[in-house]
Amino acid sequence: MTSLDQAHAAMEAAPGDDVARLRFYDRLASAELFLLLESEADGDRVTPQIFPVEGQSFALVFDREERLTDFVGQIAPYAALSGRTLAGMLAGQEIGLGVNLGVAPSSILIDAAAVNWLAQTLDNGPDEVEARPDELFPPKGLPEAVIAALDAKLAGAAGMAKLAYLAGVTYEGGRRAYLLGFVDADPAAERALAQAVAEALTFSGIEAGSLDAAFFKASDPICASLARVGLRFDLPDPVVEQAPGTAPGMDPDTPPRLR
Description:
Layout lengths: L2 H11 L4 H13 L1 E5 L8 E2 L3 E4 L2 E7 L2 H8 L5 E5 H8 L4 E5 L8 E3 L1 H11 L10 E5 L6 H12 L7 E9 L4 E8 L6 H15 L6 E6 L5 H8 L1 E4 L22 E2 L1
Helix pairs in contact: 1-2, 2-4, 2-7, 4-5, 6-7
Pfam families: SseB (PF07179)
InterPro entries: SseB_N
Protein name: SseB family protein
């Protein structure tokens, strides 16, 4: 059972639960997916195999290479990319997603309208503002679902920061919010971490007020206050660098383009 299988099972077990549905889409967006292609990629351009089902068009993706091979029955060309990237590529193309069709418990057809919704939701990035914390306090009242969503997001942020503290905060001017303060974050990863925090709140399905992300050096005085009142999250160690993959989509800086 993959994390996508588990999220799908939870959604199927509670068809009226919007939170379970949102968690499934969150897992889909975060997963590495293998997109079945018509032929080998032409540079950075890929041509997905498109399957008609009941008058709609679907591209096929799998969350394991072996599941793609099981479906096709032989080795086939594919592009490896995140669900987030794929949703952005397919948005507006009137193409849905067939996920793990016939080869896994998470077999599901996701229509084009849902793909468009996912891309739009993921595109709602965080705003950047400047504010000075006036008071920090324990994050009481934050729903457990939000904390679980943050934990899941940060588990996939290996090497982006050393750790993070979750606390309640009152800013100068009186605005109250929750704050996730990252310690010794890689400057290049700050935008991705802020996006992860925003998505954790969105896909938790809970209106929990404002959840802000901030970035500090371990030597900053505020870190001692965060350590005293905050809930600590230790991020995973950096992943050992592997040789770049040859499949299109493996380099996040140069996502493939549809043709």
